[in-house]
Amino acid sequence: MLRGFYTAASGMLAQQRAQETLANNVANANTPGYKAEQATIRAFPELLMQQMGSKQTPMKNGSNVATTKPIGALNTGVYVQETIPNFQQGDIRETKLQTDLAIVQGHVPDENGALFFTVQNDAGDVRYTRNGNFTVDGQGYLVTSQGYYVLDQTGNPIQMDGTSFSVTPDGIIETNTQYIPLGIAYTDNALEMVKEGNDLFAGETGAVPANANFTMKQGFLEGSNVDAVKTMTEMMNAYRMFETNQQVLKAFDESLGKAVSEIGRI
């Protein structure tokens, strides 16, 4: 009985974490470049239940031989193993702001490959993002909406000589006096990227392969790839599963109460 009590409780905790992930997706449905997350739920190892017994053998000393009879498997609960971002391309929408950039990803050599803008966070570390909602700060640097420096191909912050510039389809910033290649990073397995706050990812990346292609679009933003309708449906399913486990937990609690208050008196 106690084992079933903890199994139901683990189901409630798993559904609660899944609900939190889905709620975060809904909250970021309008965040440019946001990649929806999916919680993966995994079962704990199963236990094989067996009935233990013995039988007497027809021997002079009447010895007993231990026997076992399989009953079946017992599941010991579930847990959220990890959350995995979905790197499917979001919708590209026009903003007509020259500081907004969108990576339209074409063919890449790896199934889970992905391209990113390269930025520098507050600690000076290199991070990656698909959110191209950029602006030019007071010192003329191209920065993200959170104030992180956007980096060029050599890993240096991009300083403009004015607010008027254009970006070519292959990611070259052209001003009156400069040609600056944007720092576009590539990873052959985006599922290994670690998601941080403010639309940033950390992980191992390299140069864009020669057989990969993309198009940089100025005045456009990549939208979130959250499917709001599907996510709301999944939230309702998670809530129902939580309620189901809650009812099971309540039943076990009532059974334990009867065992203590009624059977215990007998």
UniProtKB/TrEMBL annotation:
Keywords: Bacterial flagellum, Cell projection, Cilium, Flagellum. InterPro entries: Flag_bb_rod_N (IPR001444), Flagellar_basal_body_rod_CS (IPR019776), Flagellar_FlgE/F/G (IPR020013), Flg_bb/hook_C_dom (IPR010930), FlgE/F/G-like (IPR037925), LlgE_F_G-like_D1 (IPR053967). Residues 217-260 form the Flagellar basal-body/hook protein C-terminal domain. Pfam families: Flg_bb_rod (PF00460), Flg_bbr_C (PF06429), LlgE_F_G_D1 (PF22692). Residues 112-174 form the Flagellar hook protein FlgE/F/G-like D1 domain. It is found in: Bacterial flagellum basal body. Residues 5-35 form the Flagellar basal body rod protein N-terminal domain. Its main location: other. It comes from the Bacteria. Belongs to the flagella basal body rod proteins family. This is Flagellar basal body rod protein FlgC.
